[in-house]
Design goal:
Layout: H1 34-40, E1 49-54, H2 60-73, E2 78-82, H3 87-97, H4 99-102, E3 106-108, H5 112-122, E4 126-130, H6 147-162, E5 167-173, E6 192-198, E7 204-212, E8 220-226, E9 229-232, H7 236-243, E10 250-257, E11 260-272, E12 280-283, H8 287-299, E13 308-314, H9 326-338, E14 369-370, E15 373-374, E16 380-381, H10 386-395, E17 401-402, H11 411-418, H12 420-428
Parallel strand pairs: 1-5, 1-6, 2-3, 2-4, 4-5, 10-14, 12-13, 14-17
Antiparallel strand pairs: 6-7, 7-8, 8-9, 10-11, 11-13, 15-16
Bound molecules: adenosine-5'-triphosphate (ATP) and magnesium ion.
Magnesium ion (MG) is lined by residues 60-61, 84, 130.
């Protein structure tokens, strides 16, 4: 017992039953951005540390500036620390975002000591640090953004926040591969990790919680980048469904964005290739997932696309990160390879022997929905929350929806169901 040899002898603590621990209910700070509040689990928790990661230009500064603007308009004390842009640059953005954003007090500073002193002097309720990678801890060697620096910056701000200080939103950059570069080391240090995803050239963006000590990580919000800033998209399914082309290569995926169902269009294009190996381009779906779907298709009754370029993308720039997307990807690829739209009324539009260069269908066929995971042996596996996905599909009149079930046990069965009309006409011929 006691300390080790030469160790200091500390006084023992008396543990307290959890039931006797004082835990006052704290009111959450609403950012006034519904989707952001929902992803946070109901708003910002005072004194918490939130890491907001996202690729360059995705809209991190925009969403944090709007959130602070709303909080300021609601009478909260806020502070925006900009290390990346000058105050004048931030002002230009705020002008675009409207009068609320212009009320936000700002300091443009990169020295951690100065920032910490300013936060302690100003005592804001919510503070944004844009970004954690540009702040510089003077006592440390290493360039700003290096692991040691980033960890010191976050640790220091965490101490400021925990001592009855502000809720701090740390903005962090992520690499193209999606890892929170530098900030990755912060994930255990902060209370909440939010990831802002999408493609900067496209209008739609999704916000997800990867970690949340005060709420579920299964929430996600959909935003659209507009002139006046990021606008919440409450009716995302309806929009994506309305935009679905229904042409060969198009399938509507009944996906789950966290606990929320979302209908998105998966598009595929298959073209003869001169390249070895041929191109595999995936936008919005995981490349490895695409490789798996291609392999399963080739082995279990689908087209062999070994000498074709393959492009798969999720329309609108949405990212789908769930195995439940497999079946929709497989059907979109098959439909593209056959040059046939999915659905019962479908007629072949491709010429014989040139299946990959289908002309667009003239008759506008119905959109077909799908979801389900593909196993390596070609079996169809259940995806989470089938009932919620189906409810969303029926809410927007999407029918039929191909999904794993007693009649659709494997990929072959799904392909038969999806291209039933064609199979019938082939038998008749
Ligand atoms: N007038 C405008 N209308 C619509 N969208 C705009 C306009 N001006 C800028 N944008 C969009 O805002 C995006 C930049 O947003 P923002 O500066 O918030 O991103 P960020 O994630 O903070 O970027 P960074 O990593 O450079 O800090 C641009 O990529 C562009 O799409
Ligand atoms: Mg920025």
């Amino acid at each position: 017992m006691g300390g080790g040899p030469g160790g200091r002898r500390a006084n023992a603590l008396r543990p307290v039953a959890l039931a006797d621990v004082q835990a006052p209910e704290v009111a959450r700070l609403k950012t006034g951005i519904g989707e952001l509040d929902r992803v946070l689990g109901g708003g910002l928790v005072p004194g918490s540390l939130v890491l907001l990661g996202g690729a360059p230009g995705i809209g991190k500064s925009t969403i944090t500036a709007s959130a602070l603007g709303n909080l300021a308009a609601a009478g909260r004390r806020v502070l925006y620390v900009s290390g990346e842009e000058s105050a004048a640059q931030v002002r230009l953005r705020a002008e675009r975002l409207g009068p609320h954003a212009l009320q936000v007090p700002i300091v443009a500073e990169t020295d951690l000591d100065v920032v910490a002193a300013t936060v302690e002097a100003e005592r804001p309720e919510v503070c944004v640090i844009d970004s954690v990678q540009v702040l510089n801890a003077a006592g440390l060697t290493g360039a700003p953004g290096s692991v040691g620096q980033v960890r010191e910056v976050a640790g220091r701000l965490a101490r400021v926040a925990k001592g009855g200080g502000p809720a701090v939103i740390l903005v962090g950059h992520v690499t193209k591969e999606g890892a929170l570069a530098g900030p990755r080391v912060l994930e255990h240090l902060v209370d909440c990790v939010l990831s802002f995803e999408g493609e900067r050239e496209r209008t739609y963006r999704t916000l997800r919680a990867l970690k949340n000590r005060f709420g579920s990580t299964s929430e996600a919000g959909v935003f659209e980048m507009r002139e006046e800033g990021l606008v919440e998209v409450a009716d995302a399914s309806e929009r994506f469904l309305a935009e679905a082309t229904r042409a060969p290569g198009s399938v509507v995926l009944c996906s789950m964005e966290g606990s929320r169902p979302l209908l998105v269009e998966v598009q595929a294009l298959v073209a003869p290739s001169e390249l070895v190996p041929p191109r595999r381009v995936a936008n919005g779906v995981d490349r490895n997932r695409l490789a798996l779907v291609l392999a399963v298709l080739a082995r279990h009754g689908g087209p062999s696309l070994g000498s074709s370029d393959v492009f798969v993308s999720v329309a609108g720039g949405v990212r789908v990160d769930e195995p439940g997307a497999d079946l929709a990807i497989a059907l979109a690829l098959t439909s593209a390879a056959k040059g046939l739209p999915l659905g019962s009324g479908a007629r072949p539009v491709a010429e014989e022997r040139r299946p990959s260069v289908g002309r667009p269908s003239t008759a506008r066929s119905k959109a077909v929905g799908a979801f389900g995971e593909l196993g390596l042996t070609g079996e169809l596996r259940h995806a989470a929350h089938p009932d919620r996905r189906l409810a969303e599909a029926s809410k927007f009149g999407l029918e039929p929806v191909l999904r794993p079930g007693p009649r659709l046990v494997d990929l072959r069965a799904a392909l038969r169901a999806a291209f039933a009309a064609q199979a019938r006409s082939e038998r008749a011929a």
